[in-house]
Amino acid sequence: MPPYLAGRTREKAEFAKLLDQDPVLQNLILTGLRGLGKTVLLETFKPMAVEAGWLWVGADLSESTSVNEQALGLRLLTDLSVATAGVVFSAEERRHAGLTAPVETAYKTLTFDTLVTLYTNVPGLVADKLKGVLELVWSYLSQLGVRGVIFAYDEAQNLGDRAEKEQFPLSVLLDVFQSIQRKNIPFMLGLTGLPTLFPKLVEARTFAERMFHVLFLDKLTKEENKEAIVKPISDSDCPVHFSDPSVENICSMTAGYPYFIQYVCREVFDVWSQKATAGEDAQPIPVQEILRKLDSDFFAGRWARATDRQRDLLKVIATLDNCALEFTVQEVVDRSVEMRGQGTLEKAFSGSHVNQMLVTLSEAGLVYKNRFGKYSLAVPLLDQFIKRQYSL
Ligand SMILES: Nc1ncnc2c1ncn2[C@@H]1O[C@H](COP(=O)(O)OP(=O)(O)O)[C@@H](O)[C@H]1O
Ligand SMILES: [Mg+2]
Questions:
Q1: CATH assignment of 9-95+117-216, given 3.40.50.300, 3.40.800.20, 3.90.320.10, 3.10.180.10?
Q2: Does residue 6 have its Cβ closer than 6 Å to ligand 1?
Q3: Cα angle at 234 between 232 and 235, to 5 degrees?
Q4: Span 304-390: which CATH code?
Q5: Pocket test for ligand 1, best of 45, 197, 229, 259 (most atoms within 8 A of CB)
Q6: Per-residue pLDDT, 202
Q7: Which residues contact 104 (CB under 8 A, 6 or more apart)?
Q8: Ligand 1 centroid to 284 CA: how many Å?
Q9: Average pLDDT across the chain, whole number
Q10: Of the candidates 16, 58, 78, 10, which has an alpha carbon nearest to the alpha carbon of residue 189?
Q11: Cα–Cα distances in Å, from 219 out to 25, 58, 59, 257, 259?
């Protein structure tokens, strides 16, 4: 968690509205590029939900959860059992041999083992079994004054159907929640993931479009950016203070992207706190050095995995004015021809070639295709990194 979570007031208000729903008609998607603050915002939502009487369960969704439907089922039961393990679902009186022996009450609770037994006993497919268990669990939880249960999953873009293996864990998840919500059971899904997440859900089940309220996390505004920099060190005991020009400097280096704000501020703080003379900047911000370090920590790994020809393509993309927002295949082709003419690129790209390569780069997590068929860079400030590589 950041020492101060800047901005995100709209998102919190939207989430509060979702918590007020009765019955649950909409589920949450929190999406955005890497480092925009999805994970920490989801963490921030948790106490809000608990405060409003909801139980909160969940985990990070790894690729392995998505291997098959069984793995998904097991994931849901595992997470749910953490919240239900103390809930009694049967009490049985037992008397030991002999009339004067004391009566003991044996309580059975909704532990993981119990949930698995219930799951195994429900007939049908994975989806039927999950629905059965969830309905039963709710019949007990509802007696305890619980408002509902939120199933919060981070990195949910890892979920996916595997038609070739006849395994549809993503569709099962959507079917199960749609079905139990229709029965007025207040179990809500909260999914967090990269921008590929929502299109993936809609592709699996068209009804997903109506089932989710999508919050797209964007970079922070200038004002929020400043707050994220200044608030954590505003305490008068703090040995380090940033002057206005330094704050401006950090704002322009980080462009409102939380991960970079956190990274750069930490670097500056570490350097300055060693030399702190309270009340003034220790020295000018070592911009070049920090950028170089950021490049090697954050960007270099991804860059190293790209082939030479892919790097050429990314170089062309990085020179487009709109590359951080969205671009089309045709724009890339045209620019590559221009750059070929200027001698800054060896070979231009054809449309089909660009198409093909963008698919590969999407799989590598460097670009993504939005719902309107346009592309964007999938890593914040990647364009600036690429320009630094070529001193463009
Ligand atoms: N609103 C915010 N204000 C200040 N720092 C933030 C904010 N959101 C995120 N951060 C910081 O940015 C970094 C990336 O956040 P994270 O939640 O891991 O991003 P994501 O899950 O989208 O990749 C973390 O170090 C986090 O503390
Ligand atoms: Mg995250």
A1: 3.40.50.300
A2: yes
A3: 100
A4: 1.10.10.10
A5: 259
A6: 94
A7: 93, 94, 95, 96
A8: 26
A9: 91
A10: 58
A11: 29, 26, 25, 5, 10
Considering every ligand atom, which ligand is closest to the CA of 60?
A: 2
pLDDT (mean) for 171-196: 96
Residue extents of the structural domains in the chain: 9-95+117-216, 222-285, 304-390
- 243 band by pLDDT with thresholds 50, 70 and 90: confident
Pocket lining: 388 vs ligand 1, CB cutoff 6 Å: no
pTM: 0.89
Place of tokens 């925009």: 36
Calculate how far, in angstroms, residue 228's C-alpha sits from the geometric centre of ligand 1. Answer: 10
**CB of 256 within 8 A of CB of 31?**
no
Cα dist. 149→52, 145, 153, 155, 324 in Å?
Answer: 11, 12, 13, 19, 37
- 103, pLDDT greater than 80: no
What percent of the chain stands above pLDDT 70? 96
Residue 197 has phi, psi (to 5 degrees) of: -60, -55
Whether 38 is in the pocket of ligand 1, judged by its Cβ within 6 Å, is yes
- Token pair in block for residue 379: 């890593």
| Tokens describing residue 60 | 């990070």
Residues 38-72 as b or e (16 or more Cβ within 10 Å = b): beebbebbeeebeeeebbbbbbebeeebbebbeeb
Per-residue pLDDT tens for 322-371?
887 899 999 999 999 999 999 999 999 999 999 999 999 988 889 988 77
> What sign does the dihedral 372-378-380-381 (CA atoms) show?
negative
Q: Which atom of ligand 1 is nearest to the CA of 1?
A: 27
294 neighbors 316 (Cβ within 8 angstroms): no
